[in-house]
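R.M. (postdoc): so does anyone remember the format we settled on? I'll just put the structure tokens first.
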């Protein structure tokens, strides 16, 4: 990555590991700061001399060269002797700092603030990079004045943009405290007064909003000798007349929705086929709004498909089935019976499509089959995923390719050890979706990479993708994303070794409390007991039997692979050995490696060599992975540890 520089406060530098780089004396920091101000352009040595000294000493040029040499040693400690510098370079009559565009906090800040629409969280993060006044120790230097003033203005602009974004999202109450402090410190900024008054009005404080506008009028007159500008005057008039245009976005949205729905009902006949396709579009959006929305979308989806089939139009049926391209991250179906019905309907639609039907319709049927066949051993699923991907690439259809790649991901579990392959799928989803504005699939790509990088033990990369998914989810109102990012944070802490077993169990119980209303029974059932079991296994603690728990535990779909360990803990060794002997291969899903590790532990405990050999053969390709971490929900530790026990 190279050195990173901070000028939003005292001038500092950090190395690849995030450790501070010693910059020696104030003249060394001044040279570095002056080169950063130049933004990669060459600064002549003579100019550096003029900027560093009011009355330069006779050897000033030599001193500058000494400072530069010391900076080079500090910034590029691994550079061989006499090798040309790559960062602080000599060029023509002077020097330039060829830092990467994201290597200086001020440059990153400028990009974050001026690079188009930005959500409040991103602006909050950027404002957090400030450690004090820009170029703090060089406030009196002429060469720093213009840049300091420019960055200060950008910071004030960012504070106001953050407030504007909060207001646009209907979060007026959050904006009020920061705006209040902002106008107190910078009373000449009319836009800040306008935003504060509007925020107060939208929180039901009309009197306070008018008082703020009166205060703004007084301060502007006293300090600048001017009257408020037209925007402030117009806002005061609008508040006095309670203009409908001042309504919060949520109110405006409700009004637009009601008007559009009324117009649709009035102009589109009740029996029109367009209603079916519009319905699926609504269901697709409903599915990502939260647990209740997901359950409702799932309940109405099969009814929409059945209604389309009743009309006897296979192309319409294909469009209705294929339009429900809701990204899926969990590899176990929430409703296996419904999934089978959708797959059967898609197969019927595929068979009935006429020869001239659009290839995209066929690809959407195949992608649907691949996604809905998740976690099964059907040979049709992997074939359908590959064929959908092939068609989508040939058609160069980004949205279709994203849906097809979701199917490819769902079928990427035919054996253990495929985390790197799935990471590639996630990387393509992120790149493709960000280029073409496919937000939900971009989130999917980041979550796939959270899982894959976690399985590979690369938690720094997984952290970045979890944060990116969280930012997109906040900006686009996708509340279910936080279910996965919150569970991942528990796994991250568990893998770090910084927390004890009791703390891990408490953290798992806390995040599991959210699962009751997320509308994902395929994820929820049995997950908390399995997570608690993973803590016990990794910490070498006894697995609690049902007698200790005082009640039977619902292990959900994981019961066949957990039962032998529970029986062993209860002293029922013969029953445990029998259970191990008849244990099936685990489902092909995100917990494949974790289930095989539980099989391995039980097989070794009961001395079942045949089952141990099965487990060893299955786990061998995943020797470099962390068992279970690829789910983003649990971890049992390195697969290599289980292979070592099996080998012994």
């Amino acid at each position: 990555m190279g050195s990173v520089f901070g000028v939003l406060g005292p001038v500092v530098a950090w190395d690849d590991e995030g450790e501070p780089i010693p910059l020696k004396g104030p003249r060394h920091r001044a040279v570095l700061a002056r080169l950063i101000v130049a933004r990669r352009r060459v600064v002549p040595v003579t100019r550096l001399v003029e900027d560093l000294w009011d009355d330069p000493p006779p050897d000033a040029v030599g001193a500058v060269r000494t400072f530069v040499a010391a900076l080079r040693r500090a910034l590029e400690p691994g550079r061989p002797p006499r090798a040309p510098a790559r960062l602080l370079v000599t060029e023509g009559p002077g020097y330039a700092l060829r830092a990467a565009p994201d290597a200086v906090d001020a440059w990153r800040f400028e990009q974050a603030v001026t690079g188009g629409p930005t959500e409040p969280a991103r602006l909050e993060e950027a404002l957090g990079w400030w450690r004090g006044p820009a170029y703090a120790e060089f406030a009196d230097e002429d060469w720093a004045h213009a840049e300091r003033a420019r960055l200060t203005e950008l910071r004030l602009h960012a504070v106001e943009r953050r407030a504007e974004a909060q207001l646009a999202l209907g979060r007026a109450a959050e904006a009020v405290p920061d705006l209040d402090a902002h106008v107190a410190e910078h009373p000449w900024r009319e836009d800040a007064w306008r935003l504060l008054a509007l925020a107060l009005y939208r929180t039901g404080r009309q009197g306070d909003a008018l008082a703020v506008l009166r205060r703004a009028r007084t301060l502007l007159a006293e300090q600048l000798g001017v009257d408020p500008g037209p925007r402030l005057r117009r806002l005061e008039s609008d508040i006095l007349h309670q203009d409908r245009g001042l309504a919060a976005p949520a109110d405006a949205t409700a009004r637009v929705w009601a008007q559009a729905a009324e117009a649709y009902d009035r102009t589109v006949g009740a029996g029109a086929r367009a209603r079916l396709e519009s319905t699926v579009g609504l269901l697709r959006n409903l599915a990502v709004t939260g647990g209740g929305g997901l359950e409702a979308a799932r309940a109405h989806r099969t009814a929409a498909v059945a209604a389309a089939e009743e009309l006897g139009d296979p192309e319409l049926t294909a469009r209705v089935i294929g339009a429900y391209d809701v990204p899926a991250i969990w590899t176990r179906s929430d409703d296996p019976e419904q999934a089978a019905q959708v797959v059967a309907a898609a197969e019927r639609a595929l068979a009935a499509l006429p020869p001239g039907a659009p290839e995209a319709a066929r690809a959407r049927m195949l992608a649907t089959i691949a996604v809905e066949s998740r976690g099964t051993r059907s040979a049709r699923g992997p074939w359908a995923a590959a064929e959908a991907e092939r068609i989508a690439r040939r058609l160069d259809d980004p949205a279709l390719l994203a849906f097809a790649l979701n199917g490819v991901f769902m079928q990427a579990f035919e054996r253990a050890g495929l985390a790197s392959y799935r990471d590639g799928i996630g990387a393509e989803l992120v790149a493709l979706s960000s280029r073409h504005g496919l937000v939900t699939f971009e989130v999917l790509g980041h979550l796939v990479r959270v899982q894959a990088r976690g399985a590979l033990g690369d938690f720094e990369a997984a952290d970045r993708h979890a944060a990116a998914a969280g930012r997109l989810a906040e900006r686009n109102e996708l509340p279910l994303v936080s279910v996965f990012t919150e569970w991942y944070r528990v796994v991250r802490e568990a893998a770090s070794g910084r927390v004890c077993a009791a703390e891990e169990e408490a953290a798992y119980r806390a995040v599991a409390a959210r699962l009751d209303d997320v509308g994902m029974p395929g994820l929820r059932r049995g997950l908390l007991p399995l997570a608690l079991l993973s803590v016990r296994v990794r910490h070498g603690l006894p697995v609690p039997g049902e007698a200790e728990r005082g009640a039977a535990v619902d292990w959900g779909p994981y019961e066949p692979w957990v039962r032998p360990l529970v029986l062993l803990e209860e002293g029922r060794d013969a029953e445990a050995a029998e259970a191990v002997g008849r244990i099936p291969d685990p489902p092909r899903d995100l917990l494949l490696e974790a289930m095989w590790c539980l099989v391995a532990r039980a097989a070794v405990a009961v001395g079942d060599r045949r089952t141990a050999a099965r487990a060893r053969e299955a786990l061998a390709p995943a020797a470099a992975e962390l068992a279970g971490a690829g789910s983003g929900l649990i971890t049992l530790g390195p697969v290599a540890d289980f292979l070592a026990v099996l080998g012994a």
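R.M.: ...and that's the designed sequence above, right after the tokens. Also worth knowing: The domain at 170-267 is CATH 1.25.40.10 (Serine Threonine Protein Phosphatase 5, Tetratricopeptide repeat). The mean pLDDT is 91.
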